[in-house]
Amino acid sequence: MFKAVRGIAVGAALVTALTACGSDDGMDAFRGTDEQPPITFTPDMVRTALPSKASAPKPYEADDIDITTGERAVETCSESTEANCGGLSTIGVTEFDVVDEKGDNVGGEGDIDFAIIAFATPDDAKATFKAIVTEERKKAGAGSKDLEIDAGAEETQAFTGEDDTEVIMRLGSLVINIQGDGKFTKEPDYNALAKLQIDRIKKTAEGKNPDA
Question: pTM score, two decimals?
Answer without folding.
Answer: 0.86
